[in-house]
């Protein structure tokens, strides 16, 4: 009798594992929650929604990066410093610092800076509207009627700035004090989660009160912390160690992966809140 190949054996193990997990669903609330979350995500096309958010994040990142780079160059000129010194003061190191320093030395810094301000505002507004549509689909089953408000756009922009600032502060503390860096990670988790909670209160969320939005905020905070730590300890070192091989392509790949993860977190956080607040409506 012929022996089954490795693929057949792994498929059989997967089927057995799936059967055991399915059998544990009635006995364990967490397993049942995971199944219902997966079913809800599949029913609304969570992967496609996350991809749309990742694209909007990328569209926002482009003018924001140009605004930051041109602003860094303007600061370097006003402070009579080199762009490399200004990049290091901003917390950038290695290949990232060299790329930013070379880009910020352009002669058209004022023009780029002025043009990118309205571009960043527009990109933030489109991202917020996409988030509002996603949350309306999750909570109400349709994105019709989702609107972008000036308050919501401002909160989203402030939340993004707070998250980036918290990441820079954590990085600075980590470079100077390892034990303090561990405590700073907890602070980052609270700040990132709190910022997303404020944004979630402005987005469509049914008639539930703010405590019902805490699970999703905690998920986003923990997910952003994971992305930040992974990029600092894994992605950055890989790219810097192979700068001659990957260079900007490696940075772009890591960046796109991070944006996809962040988009997924945004969708799943809304699904988790809706599922816990209204379990009877789970698809």
Entry keywords:
single chain, 283 residues, mainly alpha
Q: What does this molecule look like?
A:
The chain has 283 residues and is mainly α. It has one domain. Helix content is 80%, strand content 0%. It is built from ten helices and no strands. It has helices at residues 6-24, 29-44, 46-78, 83-89, 94-103, 109-140, 150-176, 178-202, 214-241, 248-277. Helix 3 packs across helix 10 (248-277) and helix 8 (178-202) packs across helix 9 (214-241). The longest helix has 33 residues, at 46-78. The radius of gyration is 22 Å and the shape is globular. The N and C termini lie far apart (45 Å). Residues 90-101 have low confidence and may be disordered.
Secondary structure topology:
Blueprint: H1 6-24, H2 29-44, H3 46-78, H4 83-89, H5 94-103, H6 109-140, H7 150-176, H8 178-202, H9 214-241, H10 248-277
Helix pairs in contact: 2-10, 3-4, 3-6, 3-10, 4-5, 6-7, 6-10, 7-8, 8-9, 9-10
Estimate percent helicity: over 70%
Proportion of residues in β-strands = under 5%
> What string, H for helix and E for strand, traces the elements in order?
HHHHHHHHHH
Mean pLDDT: 77
What is the count of distinct domains? 1
- Overall, the morphology is globular
**Low-confidence residue ranges:** 90-101
Task: Indicate the radius of gyration in whole angstroms.
Answer: 22 Å
* Count of DSSP strands: 0
Strand-pairing-aware structural class = mainly alpha
Tally of individual helices? 10
| Biggest beta sheet summary | none
Distance between the termini: 45 Å
